[in-house]
Amino acid sequence: MNDQTPPTREMREAKLEGMGCKRKRVEDVRFTQGKGNYVDDMKLPGMLFGDLVRSPYGHARVKSIDTSKAMKVPGVLAVLTAKELAGVNLAWMPTLAGDVQMVLADGKVLFQGQEVAFVVATDRYAAADGVEAVEVEYEELPVCVDPFKSMLPNAPELREDLKGKMTGAHGPRKHHNHIFEWTVGDKTATDTAFNTAEVSIKELISYQRVHPSPLETCQCLASFDKVRGELTVYGTFQAPHVIRTVASLISTIPEHKIHVIAPDIGGGFGNKVGAYPGYICAIVASIVTGKPVKWVEDRMENLSSTSFARDYHMTCEIAATKAGKITGLRVHVLADHGAFDACADPSKWPAGFFNIVTGSYDIPTAHISVDGVYTNKAPGGVAYRCSFRVTEAAYCIERGMDILAQKLGMDPAELRLKNFIKREQFPYHSALGWEYDSGDYHTAMNKAMDAIGYKQLRAEQLAKREAFKRGETRDLMGIGVCFFTEIVGAGPSKNCDILGLAMFDSCEIRIHPTGSGIVRVGSKSQGQGHETTWAQIVATEIGIPADNLTVEEGNTDTAPYGLGTYGSRSTPVAGAAIAMAARKIKAKAQMIAAHMLEVHEGDLEWDIDGFRVKGLPEKSKSMKELVWAAYNKPPPGMEPGMEAVSYYDPPNMTYPFGAYFCVMDIDVDTGEYKVRKFYALDDCGTRINPMIIEGQVHGGLTEAFAIAMGQELKYDDRGNLHGGSFMDFFLPTAVETPHWTTDHTVTPSPHHPIGAKGVGESPNVGGVPAFSNAVNDAFNFMGGTHIQMPHDHWRNWEAAHSRGMHG
Amino acid sequence: MIPASFDYHRPKSTPEALAILGQYGDDARVVAGGHSLIPMMKLRMAQPSHLVDLRSIPELKGIRIDGTTIVIGAMTTQAELLGSAQLTAAVPILHEAALQIADPQVRYMGTLGGNVANGDPGNDMPAVMQCLDASYRVTGKTGSRSIKARAFYKSAYVTALNSGEIVTAIEIPVPPGKHGYSYDKLKRKIGDYATAAAAVMMTVSGGKVQTCAIALTNLGPTPIYCAQASAAIVGSGLDTAAITAAAGAAGALMAPSPDGRGTVQFRTSVGGVMIGRALQRAYQRATA
Amino acid sequence: MAKSAIKLKINGAEVEALVEPRTLLVHFLREQQMLTGTHIGCETSHCGVCTVDLNGMSVKSCTIFAIQADGADVITIEGMANADGTLHALQEGFRQMHGLQCGFCTPGMILRAHRLLKENPNPTEAEIRMGIAGNLCRCTGYQNIVKAIQHAAAKLGGREYLEAAE
To answer: Is the pTM of this model over 0.95?
Structure first.
């Protein structure tokens, strides 16, 4: 608080609840009273319900589908199969990654849980009865679930539809189960760096198949109006406009006759970016029956069919000097995409932004290659609370750094400090082609190390290890270090599009005559609190209290076209569009103020909630007065009204970063672990609402904890998914979840209008390596270089066992 | 996940329930708390035509101490067990074990009878009952009989219960006032079944173990009562050699199935660790 | 399928309805009574988003049939606000302490916390964490949910809660 500031200014400022304010959330008023409006809460007159018959097999030919018994089930009105869908050219659908995917099994099934038939009935109970009554005859085929075996010469051919097509959406295919090879970097220079390296490491680092699992599953309600020829689809869509455009492109319905509406969404985390067969089936069923059709996935369907994440198998090599200066990085990735390439990446990026794998380090040369392969597993590969494949990249480099430190006999924090990109090197051009906008890594790392008491912890660890060796304890202590750099805010149209749709975002602001207004945005909140924070940006920019601004998203008829919310892109892209639209409002207000105050625009200065004449603070006009004038007394020649639209094509990505430390104790006899402390320092640039940022960090860290310590979608050799319910799939409760300590530095983005970078996914990106490094750090003094995730009791016990710790 | 159709019955007395069961035979299933059966019905892995809900039968409720025996009505919920100060004072292991079952909501609905009767090897109370040498009061159309918990479990989901019989009460011999106990359960998270769990009851005199009972959860198709392991402890001062001998004897009986919780080797090994922990805690409590 | 008549009290009001025996309580509440604040998340009784209060117990309404609730007294999130329309201390606590994000788990979480505080008006952090262990949240990491419940406990107990949301 500044004593020289007159209290009236403070009160004016406080009234805005603008940027930097821990504003309480607008959304909570309805959510805490059970008045949210999620898809399954909706009911339309005459609504029917659809349910899916799914494959029990991982790979099988569909010999026949008999729907006659199902049609006799009371309440069942229709059963769709690939045959019916083929009639409307929708047996297959395009994926976001340039592949095609069966909507309903066309001749064969390629993964357990694949959609085979869609039963439409008067209610969900009858639909479930109908599903049970559909008789499908299968002939089992050889199964391939292991990506390392998918390109063997004798591997079963999974995608018969691609037979003979040796060029895919991303170039040549090497094998019938190969999807693409993607390379970036200077191979010759990188090979030379390794050939001349004093020290190098090479490790296979796998990131297991996991799932975003929002508590609300994927669902939609499609309603086709035959009279008007118009389709309305309510759905759990993180990117409603993309869904509208795709729906128009694959149907014969013009885009203006499709209304896509995403109401409240119960968490997304990447699960709700893609288009799924259930959506297509509901739409077709509504067209066929002329009635609204609702489709709601159950939890097992969610875990087994819509959008896994990761399944990346990364061979990481780092070359360095004996003194610990990195001279080269080489990574090969075997990417398991499942039965169809349905990754939700910007189209030109088959492995997303995996080339951020140089991380926070000044690495002179690097080369990466990624091979995508098909297996008999569910399709997906979504960005689960991360920008596209950034989580995998961060895990790869941050494990690699620890492995290198171990080999060099150097402290892992010290190795990082030695190789960080320095503050004065920004904007920094990485060896794999990115321009990092801003950063101050040393400051962040040193602040974090001081806060956690890093040196003392290492001393304690040393003593504990000695005690362990003497047999005085059965606990190991691990200190996990992670310093990550994210790349978010996809993205500039020069390199980011989805099926040709440039990845800009948008905002439309309409201020009403009395000084309140509506802000419509192309993003779509799934819990991030956009209704709260977007208003804060506008409040600060134009001086209208956030409480007087309604934020609206998700209705494609009213929201300006936007690419939606995922990959931490909302603040970097939509947030920028909001500020730019607000500045257009402000510019018009300034012209009006100049006219009213009879001065030149240049003689005015902005003052919290209005303009005043420089040097004559008593001569001023509040925004409220200016808006009224904009409608009713505009300057001669000026159009009335107070509206602005901005479509923002970002000049660059943003690069949030952070320093995370995890202190963990592990019982070698049971594998039980206790997270003693977790400290997360995030730098997401300008902070719009610190309360919401901290909440995002808590949530992301909890997801990271779940992934690192227990999550795994595991298939057996026959293609059966194990762990496809919440009994087995590890979602921690309040009891398992550690306590989080958060901290921050602020390094604004130089190219973003308000300097913000995005934060929602940082804790997942940085959290996973911090946990995994802690576990590895606990064990590595007894040998070994890398323990694969998940680090559950069993694997921790195995790690101890293989190191001879059980006598 | 929608169950198939069924007819619902809510009898007011045990004879009425038995009559319904007699009438419909294997087409009928009894439901207690429902947290095992209803999910199975929603998955359509169970499709009874008749569901017989025991919740309105007064005589299946309640906890009473009857001289040397504690009688707990089969429909007594885990939450009611936890809420009974008298029971907790007399048999504290029940409180300790009940708290480790599922989560608060499930404990409000889940019953002791359901937990012991359905034969799920993941359920916690069967091993505790074997450890306590409890008996199950079982009633059928031909009358009532008592079956020892130690003789009740045949294989996974297969018990000594005959078709048409229901468990009406659990009878537990009142343990000595001064005793040690422990239920140690390793699990992945709240709501999970045990990776391995051990129940121990013990009396100690002059530093030497006088009586000891050990039983295990989810380390085989049935709960495992470890007579030999228990015998290995009796007479000892619970030294390392005795614990090792007990864990070894118990280990020979373990036959867990490999699953997401771990391999047979891991689960067997931590089964031994749970035994060790439970023995030591029970000993401390017995000697405190 | 033949339907049976049930009579129960929901949020203080007597309700009579016809249900199929297999109708789950959660579907009855959401689809027949239009009380859509109670959600469905996992369907195997692990996530707790369907939690309602039934005869003074927190119950997962996806794992009980409506017909089993015949004669019961049910409270859902729609019945939590105070009689004068102001928010219940828990509803207020969740907002003040940023105890929710997507809002999907919130009704179940609040109903569970309601029963917890009835049974233990002044719980420790560990007791709260154990007490809400049947309710999953994917957004918040629980830290602010714990504070929200502490905030409500303080308010209900006539005390002031001084900690801020993190």
So the answer is: yes
